[in-house]
Amino acid sequence: MGQERATTRLALAAGRGDHAAAAAFVRDTQQQIWRFVAHLAGRREADDLTQETYARALRSLPRFAGRSSATTWLYAIARRVVLDHHRAAATRAQPASLEDWQVTADSRGSDRHAVEDRVVLRRLLDDLPPERREAFVATQIVGLSYAEAAQVCDCPTGTIRSRVARARDDLVAAMTAAEQTSAPRHRPA
């Protein structure tokens, strides 16, 4: 809680033109915002979308009033950046790219099972409806409270709870289905 207040104070000072506070605000929040964006949009897009998040945030800092924590405010901006990106991507053709497992393997080293688990989790998360994925990532991966996630996603707290519960159910069902299709089949002798 103390860190949240300190971050909010930095944002308010940055909004008043304090350049050192702006740099500290970015430095203190960049890693968590990048993780959030990476889970919603993918690792390949995370750097650019995080940069866009901060570009929008820094332009808006003079209007930030501190009614919510600066981190929650920043997550809401990141969410809108990702939504805008998805809308724009839907209107243009997607070029073929490396398989996710190759990118992950290159960036994470040689622990094959851990890489495979990350790829499976990423695919399962990608298959969730966007609202459920946002709620799940915000609360279960990023660690926001349900109330903070509700502010970020601009919906009631009960809706976040419902989306997270449904996302969990979807993930369990998908994992169960994947295990059943990959289990070896024994033929009677």
Question: Overview of this structure, please?
Answer:
Helices cover 78% and strands 0% of the residues. It has 189 residues and is an all-alpha fold. Helix 7 (130-141) packs across helix 9 (157-182). The protein has two domains: 1-92, RNA polymerase sigma factor, region 2, helix turn helix motif (Rna Polymerase Sigma Factor, Chain: A); 109-182, Arc Repressor Mutant, subunit A, CATH 1.10.10. Residues 93-101 have low confidence and may be disordered. The protein has helices at residues 2-15, 19-41, 43-60, 70-90, 100-108, 112-127, 130-141, 146-153, 157-182. GO terms for molecular function: DNA binding; sigma factor activity. Pfam families: Sigma70_r2 (PF04542), Sigma70_r4_2 (PF08281).
Q: Report mean pLDDT, rounded to a whole number.
A: 83
C-alpha geometry: elongated
Secondary structure class reads: mainly alpha
CATH architecture of the largest domain: Orthogonal Bundle
Query: From the alpha-carbon coordinates, what is the Rg to the nearest angstrom?
Result: 19 Å
GO molecular function: DNA binding; sigma factor activity
Keywords: DNA-binding, Sigma factor, Transcription, Transcription regulation
GO biological process, one term: DNA-templated transcription initiation
Organism: Phytohabitans houttuyneae
